[in-house]
């Protein structure tokens, strides 16, 4: 028997809030962050997918999934998971792109 446990939605919200607070402290002018690494995506969303987690400063984060939307929805309690065929779809779906986009450079502890 396989035991599966989803990361609670409250924990995912807390992690995102801590990320935003850290970005505010370390990069006060930040507007947008992009998370491509699957380990970091798992930390913030509870699922590892081929895609990108886009985090705008003044709006809710969106996980854009390229391959298995159904699996992502089954594995995760993250509130906004959307399908994409290419990264261009994610960019268009998020609206205007700010001048600066922060991209992960390390794995979140």
TrEMBL record:
Question: What residues does the Creatinase N-terminal domain cover?
Answer: 15-86
The record's section on SUPFAM superfamilies has: Creatinase/prolidase N-terminal domain
Q: InterPro entries of this UniProt entry?
A: Creatin/AminoP/Spt16_N, Creatinase_N
Which protein, by its recorded name, is this? Peptidase M24
Q: Which organism is it from?
A: Methanoculleus marisnigri
